[in-house]
Amino acid sequence: MYDLEGRFKYSFGQDIVYSPCSFTPYQDLFLIPEIHARIALLDFQKKLVCYLGENVPIVDIEGWPELPVTLIQPGKFISPHAVAVDQKRNLYVVEWMVGGRITKLLR
Fold it and tell me: Deepest in the core among 31, 44, 80, 87, taking most CB within 10 A?
């Protein structure tokens, strides 16, 4: 985190996330897609709420993230890169993988 003058203030999450790609603040949460197969949800006190679609062992498979379709499972992520929220509070997760994938998580 930086202040409005560009001075470094602090960082957080090193003990919770290990491959963050971006983050989306939403209401009282940070939604953090991790390239290594999960979405981390942190509260504004910087504490872990949960992981969504966790599939961390998949990154150890040779060829990851370009895996055969037989290894792609609904509800399990391969390599999330972005997350967005619609007006109904559904989440959309964009993944970088063979063919790409957008997953809608219903509220």
Answer: 80
On the 0-12 / 13-18 / 19+ scale of CB atoms within 10 A, 36 is buried
d(CA 94, CA 101): 6
Q: How many CA atoms lie within 13 A of 65 on its CB side?
A: 19
Position 99 pLDDT exceeds 90: no
Range of the domain at 93: 24-105
Give domain status of residue 16, yes or no: no
Q: Which amino acid is at 100?
A: G
* pTM value > 0.90: no
* Residue 6 within a domain: no
